[in-house]
Amino acid sequence: MQSRTFKQGIHPPEKKELSKDKKIEKVPLPPQVIIHLSQHTGAPCRPLVGKGDEVEEGQKIGDHDAFISCPVHSSISGKITSIEKLPHPTLGEGEAILIENKGDEEKKWEEMETDLFSLSPEKIREKVREAGIAGMGGAAFPTHVKLSPPPAKKIDSIILNGCECEPYLTADYRVMIERIEDCIFGLKAIMRSCGAKNGYIGIENNKKDAIKLMQERMRNEESIETIPLKTKYPQGGEKMLIKAILKREVPSGGLPLDVGVVVSNVGTACAISDTLKKEKPLVERVITVTGDGVEKPSNLLVKIGTPIKYILKLCGLKEEAKCIIMGGPMMGISQWSLDIPVVKGTSGILILTEDKIEAEEEQICIRCARCVDHCPMGLLPTTLIKFIKAERWEDLEKLNLMDCIECGCCSYVCPSKIPIVQLIKWGKNEFHKISS
Ligand code: SF4
Ligand code: SF4
């Protein structure tokens, strides 16, 4: 099996064996959900409901008219008990709607016969927006925006990202195995909405059965191809995928649409399929719960807004559990509260034990250039952090600071244990404030 890839990157231990063979299990309805009003990149929603209101599963409860935004929906039927600031997995804190489960049954979303070609590209975009779909690979960028390239940008190719290059996580893998038809339907819907002729599904070659299944299924699909990719982090980065599959280089400061491409995650494709076939908004998603600190590593279908303490009760937290990360070990975010809920961009919950968390002391830079050798964006991390500390913003612009994808390869390989990516994230924030 020939596999393509990009230059540089790293090979961290994969750790997928803990959960890869665990079929997706549906989590029972939680007693309460916490629906954050900001679960996507862009303008946070404004509440459309108030305390005491009764809501139905799938009802829109928050929205904003900004183009870069998308609505949120109630993931259960119940009663609004409050709207208040609560812990948020990526923002620290955010306004959220609390809904109490009144014991109603879960809504049945009936599948309809859907002819994609009877839907215009505009209609697909409108349905995707109204369903509140945002990128489910982690970035949570509103999907209808991605599907609306400016007329000057002609899109010829759609890449479905099935890499799941973060160690430990296996939710996308299970989705590809268990929901293959929805992945393909979603991909075709994206192709139709963007007017793209070619579709690709990029899968890392540590998921051989998913590759085989997709290749067999694609035999009769003329315009869609399954592309095996080398297992290397961060192979699932948009720019790395485009380079590996199409040999196109997204320019500095540019977007995939600048080279005629839209990239979408396999989970997002399934959410698109759900809304087009069942009129079902984004009210649930598949996540991986894994790590050495959890008794029963699993792939779970959970309602958006389910508090993680409810999920961890089902999976069993070991006594030695020390650290909870939302996402994978490379780009995930450590959490300080078990009250945080699953949001649209939550791909996994990783529980690590003390022996898995290295707390080595930071040393001085020995100018070994390992960070430079492994940076997939061709940046100079060691120079970037030196200039960030000196607040040399003009020089940082020339060194393309904002091109950093925050993958963490530089921190991973640094023998001096310098928290390079944390410094760069801080620098990007400061740079953003200065230039806006
Ligand atoms: S500088 Fe940014 S893009 Fe380069 S390795 Fe570090 S985190 Fe990744
Ligand atoms: S890897 Fe660490 S020690 Fe080596 S040059 Fe980069 S920052 Fe310095």
CATH topology call of the domain at 115-278 = Rossmann fold
Largest sheet: spatial strand order: 1-14-13-17-15-16
Looking at the structure, what is the overall shape?
globular
What class, by secondary structure content?
alpha/beta
The helix tally amounts to 13
CATH class of the domain at 115-278: Alpha Beta
Helix content: 25-40%
Low-confidence stretches: none
Concise description?
By secondary structure, the chain is of the alpha/beta class. The chain has helices at residues 121-130, 143-146, 171-178, 180-194, 208-217, 238-246, 266-278, 308-315, 370-374, 381-389, 393-398, 409-413, 420-435, and strands at residues 24-26, 32-36, 46-47, 54-55, 60-63, 72-73, 78-88, 92-101, 157-161, 198-204, 224-229, 261-265, 284-290, 298-303, 321-326, 333-334, 348-353.
Q: What does this protein look like?
A:
The chain has 13 helices and 17 strands. The longest helix is centred in the C-terminal third of the chain and has 16 residues, at 420-435. The strands form 4 sheets. The protein has a 6-stranded mixed β-sheet. It has a 4-stranded antiparallel β-sheet with strand order 2-8-7-4, with no helix packed on it. Helix 10 packs across helix 13. A hairpin with a 3-residue loop joins strand 7 (78-88) and strand 8. Among the domains are: 115-278, Rossmann fold, CATH 3.40.50.11540; 370-435, no CATH class. With 436 residues, the chain is an alpha/beta fold.
